Amino acid sequence: MLDQSLAQDIVSAVSAGFDAQVKETAALTTLPSLRGQEATAQDFMARHYRERDLAVDHWQINVEDIQHLPGFSPVTISYENAFNVVGAHRPREVKGRSLILNGHIDVVPTGPHDLWTRPPFDSYVSGDWLYGRGSGDMKAGLYGCLAAFDALDRLGLRPAAPVYLQSVVEEECTGNGALACLQRGYRADAALIPEPSSHALTVAHTASTRIGIVRGIVRTPSRARPAGTARS
């Protein structure tokens, strides 16, 4: 069990870095990272991983490497700019359990720009909210993993077991980005995905490889919403 005094110190360290966290999340949000256009945002993540002395693995996904694996989804667009980035913390003496912190850098399409009050990637803060396409889903969570690492650094602490911070592509359409991390050999005792999901911790997911997934495309003018909350 985590010592309560240490827990409070960690919370205070997170709060101390919150303004910087919001600023960098906003900067990341301004980088358009629609599917096939994530390279610049991934360069941003790679640079921030290096600044924290993490070992950076930055590679282009090869479809041939993953197409035989369970969970692979058919590819419909070019992977020419499909790059994953992993920042790895590997302590010299390992104690405890390892962890993967996984988030996706790709964002859903912007839809018609005339439905936006400001340009989609014009990130800004209003009240307690950070706006901009992809800020919530899920660049806030993705950078939040780094902010948690920074909070420990402020206390002079580092995890005693390996931690792999993964910034992946292809979440919005296939999930092949996370699969490519698995194929590359990244394993851990646990994984946390800070996806915005009604402020609830989800420990299981309804899926069936036997039934599979049927994908279809319907085009209709509307206001964009995440698929999980869309209403007809």
Taken as a percent bin, the fraction of beta residues is: 5-15%
The main pleated sheet reads as: 5 strands, mixed
Query: Count of DSSP helices?
Result: 6
| Range of helix content | 25-40%
Q: What's the overall average pLDDT, rounded?
A: 90
Question: Termini distance?
Answer: 46 Å
Shape: globular
Structural class by sheet pairing and helices: alpha/beta
Instruction: Kindly report the CATH topology.
Output: Aminopeptidase
Report what the structure shows:
This protein is α/β, with parallel strands linked by helices. It has one domain: Zn peptidases (Aminopeptidase, 3-Layer(aba) Sandwich). It has helices at 4-16, 18-29, 39-51, 63-66, 135-154, 176-183; strands at 55-60, 83-89, 99-104, 124-126, 129-131, 163-168, 190-192. A 5-stranded mixed beta sheet has the order 1-2-6-3-7, sandwiched between helices. Helix 1 packs across helix 5 (135-154) and helix 2 (18-29) packs antiparallel against helix 5. Mean pLDDT is 90; it is low at 208-212.
Could you name the key traits of this structure?
single chain, 15% strand, Aminopeptidase, globular, 232 residues, alpha/beta
